[in-house]
Amino acid sequence: MTRATLDPAKAYGRHPLQPHQLTDRVTRIEDTIVLCHLGVARPDADDWSLSIDGLVRRPTRLTWNDLMRRPHVEITSIHECCGSPMKPDVPARRICNVVWGGVRLSDLLADCDPEPAARYVWSSGTDYGVFEGETIDAFVKDLPLDRVAADVLIADAMNGLPLRPENGYPARLVVPGFYGTNSVKWLTRLTLMDKRATGPFTTRWYNDPIRDGSGRPTGATVPVWSIAPESVIVSPAPDQTLPAGETTNIWGWAWADGGVSAVDVNVDGGPAVIRAAIEPSAGRAWQRFTVSWRPEHRGKCELWSRAQSADGRAQPDAGARNAIHRVAVNVV
Ligand SMILES: Nc1nc2c(c(=O)[nH]1)N[C@H]1C(S)=C(S)[C@@H](COP(=O)(O)O)O[C@H]1N2
Ligand SMILES: [Mo]
User: Fold this and answer.
1) What is the residue range of 301's domain?
2) Is the pTM of this model over 0.90?
3) Looking at beta carbons, which pairs linking 114-118 to residues 24 or more positions away fall under 8 Å?
4) Partner of 155 for a Cys bridge, out of 100, 165, 245, 321, CB 3.0 to 4.6 A?
């Protein structure tokens, strides 16, 4: 296939909503985040194909029509950009919750007969250019092969509509539960390999330092794959005025790869927390939490929420991309 044109061939992103504006359970398409490191590629569906090769006994190439003929599923999932790979300590809060439509990668891989030595799936997009001074032939990411069975998709739709160019039209990878960076847009090639991908987006960038108990880097790193527990307070909004003595609902969204088991909310700056009511984890979607609160003392007050993942991790106070979200309100 011919190389996609890039328009414009420079980084492009959108981050339309702040946490207090995330009132919809499913984020409207025009409100979703967008992140393109190398510009928006514009491949034609007629010209598009997806090759699956590497450690497989039957390499294959799918056209757009081949993909369309496959059974499609829908998965509602949190979609989160982890923020700048150079700033793993800064919460970007670029999040939305969308319905992906597409074909299960596990179905496609079964036809290719992977070899036992295969452990990772390398995924390439057609975009290219320069990022952080480095010339990039193609945006290449990877994921563990054993994750594919869960619900990895070759997606061609978002919220029931064809993908927009900036979201990866005609088709992209979606790895629900992993940070957005792993979901390669304008996907054209999947390669099964026995080691991690060698390009800069999997070696130089998107590997977080592991710190010891006192916060010092150990020298070891962990790939930016699995989404850490996180929560945002949607209501009240920052600087909102709340009447003293009246009950108000504090609510927001919480999520983590594997689901959230608890959310604690703090309303008075002290150590005490209120355990929020939280809806049960449903697939990959974010979960609504609620606390009812009757403020007594007039003045400024800071609220925060802390989510705990089903596997027992909790949001840190600060210094991490999933640090707790604080909202200052005025009680009058
Ligand atoms: N081919 C390609 N895929 C890509 C990117 C990219 O620059 N090129 N950006 C990644 C990043 S960092 C994120 S957060 C998500 C964003 O997906 P969206 O723009 O559809 O929200 O796409 C990922 N997939
Ligand atoms: Mo991202």
Assistant:
1) 230-331
2) yes
3) 114/55, 114/56, 114/57, 114/145, 114/192, 115/55, 115/56, 115/57, 115/192, 117/55, 117/194, 118/54, 118/55, 118/56, 118/145, 118/192, 118/193, 118/194
4) 100
